[in-house]
Amino acid sequence: MRDLANVFKALSDETRLRILKLLEHGELCVCDIVAAFNIVQPKVSFHLRVLKTAGLLKDRKEGKWMHYKIDDSDLFKRLLVLSVIEKIPENNVQEDRRRLEEFMRNKAQGQSTSACKEKKK
Amino acid sequence: MRDLANVFKALSDETRLRILKLLEHGELCVCDIVAAFNIVQPKVSFHLRVLKTAGLLKDRKEGKWMHYKIDDSDLFKRLLVLSVIEKIPENNVQEDRRRLEEFMRNKAQGQSTSACKEKKK
DNA sequence: ATTATGCATAAATAATTATTGATCTATCAA
DNA sequence: TTGATAGATCAATAATTATTTATGCATAAT
Questions:
Q1: Selected residue with higher pLDDT from B110 and B98
Q2: Which residues make Cβ contacts (< 8 Å) with residue A78, sequence separation at least 6?
Q3: Are A28 and A51 in contact (CB under 8 A)?
Q4: Where exactly are the structural domains of chain B?
Q5: What is the pTM of this model?
Q6: Whole-number Å distance, CA A106 to C1' D18?
Q7: Separation of A26 CA and D23 C1' (Å)
Q8: pLDDT tens-digit series, residues B6-25
Q9: Which CATH number fits domain A2-105: 3.90.1150.10, 1.10.10.10, 3.40.50.300, 3.20.20.150?
């Protein structure tokens, strides 16, 4: 019962809903999400941890990157996350996707150097 | 999106989950829930309001009683509430049901006088 | 009318969560 | 090594929620 309440608590925050929506099409690393939302990294890490603790996300370490994606091992939670994704209108996350794609583009071209370094103002 | 987060927030508290579970078999008035949980009335009213605001409960006034029941007008919310009810094991709410039934019995016999008056210690 | 009951709400306080800024660790590149 | 980057975590603070006590309002019984 506590676990159930916890899952809902994880879903009760708009930033976390946006994260789930952003992960709709696959995994992302923390710096991607930071770039997409234009908010500080500890904040993103905090919300990712909440989602992970609730069993809604999985992580995977690769070099110095942590990748997060939707955890589909539990059917109920998976259904919840899917319904969240379905219920958030695309235009609510347009800006997030735009910033993400721009960031991804920069990443792709400047491959020689580090990918996620501080974006200049 | 805010509305969606709100629905989940309403579901993120154990007392509120217990209320939904208790309402599984039909409507109850506030004093029933107070008796079932053995907690103070304003606290129950507070949680009922949260659930109602989120669109998970409906209320109905009859004389001086307020009756609450599950709002089944929205399919998604209805599904959520059903899954909550299904996921909470019966033994988590045994005591609640026992106190409720005892209270209902007293109500039924002492019909002449007021039903929900302060229970003696 | 007067009194008692059912319930909501307000004010005050307590308890949780979220956010920020400052480290800290691990990994990789030079 | 040394330096830089990705990300976690901690400490301090801000912001929300929950709980309690007190009160107010409506209804109904006397």
A1: B98
A2: A70, A71, A72
A3: no
A4: 2-105
A5: 0.91
A6: 46
A7: 55
A8: 999 999 999 999 999 999 99
A9: 1.10.10.10
